[in-house]
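Fold it.
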Amino acid sequence: MEKFDVVVVGGGSTGVAVARDCAMRGFKTILIEKGDLGSGTTGTCMGMIHGGFRYLLPPHSDTQLVTEMCRESGIIQKIAPHLVFRIPYLHLITKPVDEKGLEKLIKMYKFLDYFHKMKNTHPHTYLSKEDALKLEPNLNKDAFFGAFYTEEWGVDVFRLVVATALSAKEHGAEIRTYTKVIDVLREGDEVVGIKVRDVFSGRVEEIRASMVVNAAGAWVPIIAKMAGVEYRLRPTKGVHVFLDRRITNFGIIAEAIDGHYLVLLPHENTMMLGDTDDDYFGDPDDVKPTFDEVEYLLRSMERFVPKIRDARVIRAMAGLRPLLYRWGVPESDITRRDEIVDHEERDGLKGFITIGGGKMVTMRLIGEKVTDLICKKFGVREKCRTRDEPLPGAEREVDVLELARKYGLPPRVVERIVHRHGCRAERILKYTKDKPEWKSTICTCEPVIEAEIRYVLREEFARTIDDIKRRTRLGMGPCQGCFCTFKVAHIVSDELKFPVKEIHKLILDFLRERWKGKQSVLRCYQMGQEELAQSIYMMVANYDRLIDVME
C-alpha cells in the first residue's frame, strides 16, 4: 500500500493551497475531493480578492486581517495576473451625513492609502451626488447623498483553484476528485490515514499518511467527527443573483432594506448581485437559494439602480461560509479570520490538523501557515515559495492579437481563452492546427471553442459537463446551457469513451444542477427562456421519459 506524507481533504481554495505548498516543499502529497475542485464553498463566493474596508469598522476592527487580505491580493495579482481584473466601485452614502461626519469618513478612507499600495489600487475619493451621477447615470438620484469611489480586484475563482491544483500536481502531488472520505483511520491516539470511496466506480480503498489535513470547508465538522474529535463551525448562507447583461460598469455598494450591505458588480460577461448572510443549520450538501432571498436582493438594489428590473435574472447560487463558531454575535459580525487547530495539542490526537474559517483571498497564506506547522512537526526546514512562483499560465505574457492572427480565430475568442489559461492558451490553440474543426464555437455566450473543452478534459481533471462549466464558463451565460449541452456531451463522449447511457446521465445531471440555480429566479423574461429550454430537452429530446427509464 502506497503511503503519503500528507493527505489533504478538500479541494476548495484552502485545500489546493495547502497541497501546493506541501508539494513544493518536498512532501509526498495527495489531495482528496468528494466532488470537483472548487465545487463547494469556494465556487459560490463573490470572486473578490479584496481588502475589506468593513473589517476595519466595529465590531470587527481587525487591522491585521485587512493587512493580510490586502497583501495577499497583491500576491495573487503577481502570481496569476491573467486571472484578475480591476473593478471600480461606487460606495453610496445612503444616510445624511453632516460636515463633521463626512470629514471623519474622508479621513478614514485616506488612512486606507497604506492598504491600497499593497493591493495595487487607487485611493478612495469622495464624490458629490452630481459627480457620481455623471459616472453612473443609472443611479436613482433620490436614493443617496454622495459616494466614495474605490477599486477592488475580481478573480476567476474556478480558474484560480484549478491553476493552484495544477501547480501542486506539477510539483509531485496527486489530485483525486470525485473521491469521498468515508472514514478517518486511527491507531490509538494517532490518525494514520483515510478510507475513501470512488464516487463513480464505488471502489473503496485506504490511503495511509503521516498527516491528514482537514480542509473540507463547511464539511470540516463531519471529517473531524470521523477522526473522533469535535470541531464546531457557525456556517452562514450566502445567496448571489446573476443578470444576463451589464447594467453598469461600476460595482455599486449600498444598504439593503435591513441595513445589510449589498454589492452589484460586473462579473465576467454578466452582472452579479449579492449577498445574504444567514445562519444555516441544514445539510451542507443541500444548500439552495429561495424565491424570497432572490427578491430581497433585487428589491433592495432596485432602490438604487431601478434599471435592474430591465435585465433578465438568469440564475441564483447559494453557498456556505465555514465561519468560526461564535455565540451571541449576529451573522455578519462573525470574524472572517481562519483558525488552524493542531489536534495533537488540543486533543492529544497526532497526525490530524483542522482548518476553520478564512477567506478565499487568504488561501495562499493559510496554505503557508499549515505547511509551516507540518514542516515543524517533521523537522523540515524548506522555505515557502508560493508567494513568488507564478501559477501555471502566468509564466509569461502573451499577445492576444498575435495569437488570433496565427491561429485564425476572432480576437474575442482568443482573449477569453488567454484570460482563463494565460500563456498556456497556445497549448489549446495548437490543437486547431491538426484539427481545424475544433475551432467550432460550442458555447456562444462566453465563447468557448471545442479545442478548449478537449484540453480541460485531458489536462485539468475534468470528468463531467459541470466540471467543464467551471473551467470554461460553458453554460454560465444568458442561455444557461440551453443550446450547448448536447454539443459538449458529444465531445465528452468522444474524449472519455463513456457509453451512451452514461452520457445521457451527464446531461441530466448538468440540467439538474442548472435547475437548482434557476427555479428561484423564474419571473418575467426568464420564464420564456426556461420554457424554451424545457421544450428542447423534455418535448423534443424526450428527457422526461428518459428520467423514468434511468431511475
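The domain at 3-41+158-232+336-378 is CATH 3.50.50.60 (FAD/NAD(P)-binding domain).
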